Amino acid sequence: MHNTTTDKELRIYKPLSIYKELRVIGFAGLLVIILVSAIFWIYPDTNIQPFNYCLIATSVWLFCWRQTWKRADLNYSAKNSPAFPNLGWANNLTLLRAGLIALTSGFLFQPFPAGMIAWLPGLLYSAAALLDRIDGFVARRTNRTSVLGSELDTLFDALGLLIAPLLAIQFGKLHWSFFAVSLAYYIFIFGIYWRHKRNRPTHPLLPSQLRRAFAGFQMGFVAIVLLPIFPARATTLLGAAFMLPILIGFVVDWLVVSGRIDGTQTNTLAFFSELDAMSKCLFQPALRIIISTLIFFLIYIDDLLPSVSAVAIAVFAILILLGAGARIAALLLLMLCSYLMNEWYQPALLFTCSWLLLLGPGNYSLWRGDDIWVNRQDGA
C-alpha cells in the first residue's frame, strides 16, 4: 500500500501538538504577569500601579501569543519540508523573549520605579536582548531553524525596539527624537506595503554587514540605557550618536527598495563598494586617531580623573589606536561615560566611540577578533 499523505496534510497534522504547547505557554505567561502585578500591589512603595502594569503587559503578551498562534503552521525549515512535531528549544526561547518584552512594557505610562525596582526594566530588556543572541544559535545547533522562528525573531525584535526606546524616553534617558529610529522600521514596512497595493515595484536590498549589526547594537544600547546607573545627560547624547547612522541606513535602504537607487547597476554596486573601502581605509582609522587624541587630552587636562581611571582609559586609547580589540575598548569607554561629560571634547568622544563601535576599526588594525565576531554573528 502506498502512503498517499501529502506534505500539506502532514503539516496540518503535526502542528496540533504545537497548539497544545502554545495554550500552556500562553497561560503560563499570563500567570507570571499576574504574579508580578500582585507583588506591586503588595508593595505599593515601588510607585508602580499594579492594574495598569497588568493591563499593558497582558495586552503585549496576548499580541505576541496571537502572532505566534497565527504562524504555527510555518514551523518547518524549508518550503517543501514537513513541519516539526513541536516548537523546539529555539522557538521556546523566542517566546520567552516575548514574555520578557511584555513584562518590560508594563512599566510604560507609569511613574519612575522606586528603589531596586528601578533596575527591573533594564534587566528584563537586557535578558530579552541576550536571548536574541541565543535563540538563533540554539536553532542552528539543534537543526531546528524554521520559517516560524525567523518571522517571530523579526517581529519581536521590532516590538522590543518600539517598547524599550519609548520607555527610555519616558524615563528621560533618551531624547524624544530617538523614537524616529523605532518608527523607521514600521514606516519602511508600510512603505513597501503601500507600493504593493498600488502595483509599484519593490527592489531587493543591497547586501550589507552593517544592517543587522546596527539592529543588534541598538538593542544592546537601549538595554544599557534603561539601567539607572548611567546619567541621563550622557545617554541622551549617546542616543543621538547611535541614531544618525541607523537613520541614514534606513534612508539608503528605502532609496534602493523604491528604485530611486538602482541596486542592479554595476555603477551603483561599484559606488557603494568604493564607499565601503574608503570608510575602512580613511574614516574608521581616523576615528581611532581622534578618539586616542581626545583621551590623552582628557587625561592631561582633567585633574578630576582618579589615577586608576586615567590608567585604564589610557590603555583603552592605546588599544583603539592600534586597532587591537577596538570595538571592545570603545564599548568599555562608553561604559565610563559618566566621567566624560564636562567640556566640548568629551561629548565628541562619546560620538566617535559610538561610531567606532557601530562601524568597526577599519583597516590597519592589529587584532580584529571582536570585529570578525560581530560581522559573523550579525552580518547579513
Keywords:
disordered N terminus, 2 domains, 380 residues, mainly alpha, single chain, 14 helices
Task: Explain what the structure shows.
The protein is mainly alpha-helical. The chain contains 14 helices and no strands. Helices cover 70% and strands 0% of the residues. Helix 2 runs antiparallel to helix 3, helix 4 runs parallel beside helix 6 and helix 5 packs antiparallel against helix 8.
List the topology elements.
Layout lengths: L6 H7 L2 H27 L7 H21 L17 H18 L14 H22 L5 H24 L8 H19 L12 H16 L6 H26 L8 H36 L5 H16 L3 H10 L9 H15 L9 H10 L2
Helix pairs in contact: 2-3, 3-4, 4-5, 4-6, 5-6, 5-8, 6-7, 6-8, 7-9, 8-9, 8-14, 9-13, 10-11, 10-13, 11-12, 12-13
**Tally of distinct domains:** 2
The percentage helix is over 70%
Q: Termini separation (Å)?
A: 47 Å
Which parts are unreliable, with pLDDT below 50 for 5 consecutive residues or more?
1-5, 7-13
Q: How many helical elements? A: 14
Number of strands: 0
Beta content comes to under 5%
Class from secondary-structure proportions: mainly alpha
Q: Main β-sheet, in a few words?
A: none
Q: Whole-number average pLDDT?
A: 88
Rg on CA atoms, Å? 23 Å
Order of helices and strands: HHHHHHHHHHHHHH
Shape: globular
